[in-house]
Amino acid sequence: MKQITQRKNRNRIIASLLFTLFLITGIILFLSRTKEDFGRQPTTSVLYKLSDIYTAGSIFDRNHTLIAKGLSIGQMQWNEDNTIRQSFSNIIGAPIKKTSASCYSVLGMAAPTLYGYHKTCLDDWKQWIFPQSKNGEPIYLTIDVDIQSAIYHSTKQFDNAVVTVSNYQTGEILGMVSLPTFDPTDPDSIVVDKNGFIDTTYHHSCYINKNLQTSFLPGSTIKPILLGIALDINPDLVNMTYNCKKTTHNFHGISVGCYDGEYHGKVDFESALCCSCNGYPIQLLSQIEESDFEQGLLQLGLDSNETYPNRFAAVGSTFYGNGEHDIANRTLATIGQANCRMTVWYLTSLYAAIFNDGIWKNPTIFYNDPNQLGKGNPEETLIYTKNTASILKKALIAVTKKGTAAVYDMSSLGFTIAGKTGTADTASGKRTVWAVAGIIDNQKPYVITVCLPDQREDASGSTVAGPVMREILLKLLQK
Ligand SMILES: [Zn+2]
């Protein structure tokens, strides 16, 4: 009798133990599988903690070339090629604990993978209770080491240069160079203040990726982008003509010169973009109601606080910025002055939509899974109608055939290029000059933006940025 009771009790204990174990396993499995749904956002302080525990994972380019890898906690080993190190330096970024700007760098964006945050809850758990040295996971950049090196070689003679190359069909970033650069393996090249921080507030800093972190006056490169808003509202506006002469260049009391003081006479949509007439886009956009125009700006993501997938971050691009929404600011911003400011990446992405039937793609700069390479983010946003995109693309092809971007026409190589140049006068008296190009080809659906700030006052997009674009295009097309 006694034995039977003992056995019964033992069975009960075993059953309840098994049940408890089952319950705990269930909870842990549930937590670890659904952790994304719980909205656990890796905060900066969590990542800082993890970077004290994890040796960073490896960083490869899209061809699986090793760019850098964690050597030990807080230490990275970089590729031995100096061009690779320099050209990738500020994209990958300074050590995340030395900078407040890590959210704009690959180290910051990919930190959850590189520093182990994407491991399961169970792993995290053990990690917090029994901290031990661990290795992060690898990431695969969408950047192509050859494109990166080509850009670097074509721009390194400039003190200040910013270049983005993207695939306009997938939104993948293929090249992103920001000059000046630094050598991440040279201990003397990382200069810190008394608190151990790098100064990244200075907009010309070698430690920041200006493609994402600095916005510039876009000059005439903004014109096609804005004209697209008007064409979406009223496609017939493409037939508007305008007589560009001194007496017609006063808009609501603001006298606007044309590029280098030259008046263009009678211009239509295409010829106005070819010669980069200032009067034409101002006149055309004045046909659009302010409320419709502002709706269009939001559609383009200007003056808004957009966020992007996978922790991708860039400072905002603006039309009115903090300025008044009045006719003076609207007139000047239409030609890329006043409060109109664009990051080089964002301007590139808007041109990408023009070359991609009006479809804007979310940016991708890295994947955790190399099988994703070439796919991009499936989410799409239609920012122009197909008709508008097609009108704009056709006019931009004319700009390289017979307009200000003729220096980088590539018809001799059998390629059609759509392009636009830009020249902006800044408050310092220096100029920011631009060249944008889209390769109209399904094998190389690339969009490229060259931005050269701090140029002399006789420089222009056509004469200074254009030849750099030509050199980069030759390398990309002959690759
Ligand atoms: Zn003009």
TrEMBL record:
Gene3D superfamilies linked: DD-peptidase/beta-lactamase superfamily
Domain of life: Bacteria
Record bears the keyword Membrane: yes
Residue stretches making up the Penicillin-binding protein transpeptidase domain: 162-473
Positions of transmembrane segments: 12-31
Keywords in alphabetical order: Membrane, Transmembrane, Transmembrane helix
SUPFAM superfamilies assigned: beta-lactamase/transpeptidase-like
Gene Ontology MF annotations: penicillin binding
Cellular-component GO terms for this entry: plasma membrane
Pfam families, per database record: Transpeptidase
One BP annotation, GO: cell wall organization
PANTHER family: PEPTIDOGLYCAN D,D-TRANSPEPTIDASE (PTHR30627)
Protein name: Penicillin-binding protein transpeptidase domain-containing protein
Organism per entry: Candidatus Fimimorpha faecalis
Organism placement in taxonomy: Bacteria, Bacillati, Bacillota, Clostridia, Eubacteriales
